[in-house]
Amino acid sequence: MLRRVVPLLIAFVAVHVVVGWLGYQQPNEPMGDVYLVYEPWSRCALFGGVDLSSCTRSVAWEWPGITEKWIYPQLAFLPMTFAWVFAWAVGYTPAWAITVSLFNLVAFVILIGSGRSRGRVIAAWFWVAAILLIGPVGLYRIDGITVPFAILGGIWMLRRPFLASVLLSIAVWMKVWPAAILAAGLVAVRRRLALVWGAVTVSLATIIPVVALGGAPYVFGFVGDQTSRGIQMEAPVGGLYMFLAAFYVPGSEVYYDGDVLTFQVTGPGADVVIAVMTPLMLLVMAAVALVGVRKLRHGATFLSLFPPLALALVTAFIALNKVGSPQYYVWLFPPVVLGLLLERRRWYGFAALTLVIAGLTQWMYPLMYDGLMAQHPNPFPTAVLEVRNVLGIVLLVWAIVRVVRAPVGRVRPPAGLREIVTGRRPVPARSSVRL
Questions:
Q1: Is residue 230 a contact partner of residue 274, using CB atoms and an 8 Å limit?
Q2: CB–CB of 12/125 below 8 Å?
Q3: What is the pLDDT of residues 58-88, one digit of tens each?
Q4: Closest CA to 93 of 42, 59, 58, 44
């Protein structure tokens, strides 16, 4: 239906143009990762043997993740290098924005479908609003390119599980977080073998070339790098330390870690927190997944279980992580899109809270980031940051409660479920047609 599709497409284009432009207007380098990191990495790897730290002197061929340890999984290089298709004409940073926008557009068009499903249309409007509210950090980071893969993987999880697994696994090998949605699928979908084969196929297609090129020692280098990191100042677990640093409590301060290119926070007992957080995060995610398994065995349906389980696992990945970059909050968008698509009335609250979190994230970064980067941060930006973090924890608890309360037994699917899932309105039976 054009009256629904056309306004959505206009809004989609307008929002991406505005967000892309805001990246050039806002403070604190919201595009910094693109021109300071992605462009040098990809240029050095594509255009000759040059030193990756400076790209100025000739050395042996080097490629992060193959010839040296890298903070990202190896397929993260795909969008970084693909952006060079447009970079010759507009420069690398706009080319990156174009690349993310094109991937978003493909998923957006598939999400809308024919425009007949109200759930799909509402989910599409939510995604447009979320992109605008979270701002440039959602467009100018590698995380942004994984969102359309995760949305499509969720849409096709039930009907085309192998394809869904392939898309999600590609995203996992760019940034690990979509593994949470894949894990939710393994719990909620009956055709689990198809999901397993999709993941195995993509993993082998990634690992074998890396090993063949001599990168065996670095295949999983990104895992150790993440687990050994300190407490990033934006992470929820760093909230207490941020307030201690803001009020000059001895031993508490914000500092810049040049190895991982981010600001971190420390204070009393920080080493213990650093050691505990990753196991705690994995333990909570495993416990939530086990609750999902139990609900499925008692008769919960894919419709009632998969979206909240995906949201709970993804939010746990954020709220219990000692690394907490602002762009992590784009991870919330795919589960909420899926929830609105399948059960929109039960997901309006989740959607509203996610939009508030996205808006606070842009307010915090990049608009007030100056006040956080000092050794002793400004109390007001710190308070805004921690309000955002608390709302993230509220979202986590809410999602877990929804998983625990997922209805079991014989549950009648809603009357337009086929239309919602396929994007097409079923042909009515002859007896029901009004003449």
A1: yes
A2: no
A3: 445 567 888 888 889 999 999 999 999 999 9
A4: 42
Q: How confident is the model at residue 116 (pLDDT cuts 50, 70, 90)?
A: confident
E-strand ranges in 95-214 read: none
Largest CA distance in the chain: 80
Closest by CA position to 134, among listed 158, 167, 111, 100: 100
Residue 165, token pair as written in the block? 């697994």
Degrees, nearest 5: CA angle 337-341-344? 100
Name the nearest CA neighbour of 310 among 191, 144, 178, 222.
Answer: 178
Q: Is 214 left (phi over 0), alpha (psi -120 to 50) or beta?
A: left
The length of the chain in residues reads: 435
User: Is the C-alpha dihedral spanning 112, 108, 155, 342 positive or negative?
Assistant: negative
Q: What is the DSSP letter of 412?
A: P
Distance of CA 184 to the CA centre of its chain: 15
**Which tokens is 203 given?**
């993993």
List the helix and strand counts (H, then E) for the chain. Answer: 18, 3
Looking at the DSSP assignment, which residues form a beta bridge with residue 58?
50
Q: What is the pLDDT of residues 246-255, one digit of tens each?
A: 999 999 999 9
Tokens for 43? 């240029």
At residue 263, what are phi and psi to the nearest 5 degrees?
-90, 135
Residue at 294: amino acid letter: R
The tens digit of pLDDT for each residue in 7-53 reads 999 999 999 999 999 999 999 989 999 999 999 888 888 876 444 44
Reported pTM? 0.92
Question: Tokens 């389980």 identify what position?
Answer: 309
Indicate the helix (H) or strand (E) that contains 13: helix 2-25
* Token pair belonging to 295: 């609900």
